[in-house]
Specification:
about 350 residues; alpha/beta; Rossmann fold; 2 domains; 6-stranded mixed beta sheet; 6-stranded parallel beta sheet; 12 strands; binds nicotinamide-adenine-dinucleotide
Amino acid sequence: MEVFKEMENYGYEQVVFCHNEAAGLRAIIAIHDTTLGPALGGLRMWPYSSEDEAIFDVLRLARGMTYKAAAAGLNLGGGKAVIIGDPRRDKSEALFRAFGRFVQSLGGRYITAEDVGTSVEDMDYIHMETDYVTGVSTAYGSSGDPSPATAFGVWQGMKACAKVALGTGSLSGLTIALQGLGHVGFNLARHLHDEGARLIVTDINEEAVERAKAEFGAEAVEPDDIYDVECDIFSPNALGAVLNPETVPRLKCRVVAGAANNQLLSDSDGDALHERGILYAPDYVINAGGLINVADELQGYNRDRAFKKIAGIHETILKVIGIAERDGVPTYRAADRLAEERIALIGEQRRFHLPSRPTV
Ligand code: NAD
């Protein structure tokens, strides 16, 4: 991979290759854009089969964080880090402390967090070397498990979609098909049930399905049948790429709104939803509750303040829909425009005004 070419094409600011032989560390930190603030993004540990694969992943994920933070209204930029290694075999105190020293060396341009393959314990080791880390143990002032925050944000975004597509600000009486009853999905199901929605659920974990039946009076279907369910809202909370040429034609809903990352297999699936008149809540906008929650740690975590900000996802989704209508584009494109317009406007403003202390 030609790294500089990729950096030029997509506007990356900095890519840092980190090596510490004694600790066995091979890591890459990618900082995409710090126009709005320091680059916050998780640290992924994965046994990449090649350096190119690791570089490709860290670059792609860092850029995604720029858009997610910008659309969420946070004063944060986009970054991400990867450690090349097997999280089941290669973890050690020395490894994460070595990584932490590299984070510290960037002086706050990059703030790390948990991601696939890393845990709270790993963040605590990193914290021994740097303050530029979130998601440490609650004893150090962390916000803890992000899933309730993510679920709360999805619920708020779903209500905004219902207002526009179904003409009701309340989900009471609506039928909602939920795919995935994990950390986010189960919390979301509780909000929906409490508001009076009728739930049709699926999960490959039978125990979670039984709990949803018992606690929320949910009806259950087989995992593959969820796409055919007659419903008002389909909510994917399990896997990526569930909106694809095989599933989109099967959907019998007016809205798709869920927490799963990378729901669209490709852009053309977002176009297909748009053509079918199904309102799609862009995944990185509606699932930003966890990010907003963890970002609040940077000011000394306050749950009430964080959840108040997360409630803003309702307004953000309405803004995305407004841009989609203004420009005649599908919502997944409108979300990118919302992020790009905010970065451009604030970036321009900063050029002409005295610097202020940013609040996240
Ligand atoms: P999780 O692993 O706790 O839950 C996922 C659930 O999906 C599990 O119960 C699993 O059994 C189920 N599942 C897996 N394959 C399935 C299938 N084929 N059909 C039906 N169910 C299936 O994960 P989570 O933390 O709840 O996250 C869910 C999604 O939301 C993921 O895509 C994640 O990346 C995304 N997300 C999560 C957060 C967060 O705060 N946890 C934040 C942003 C985005």
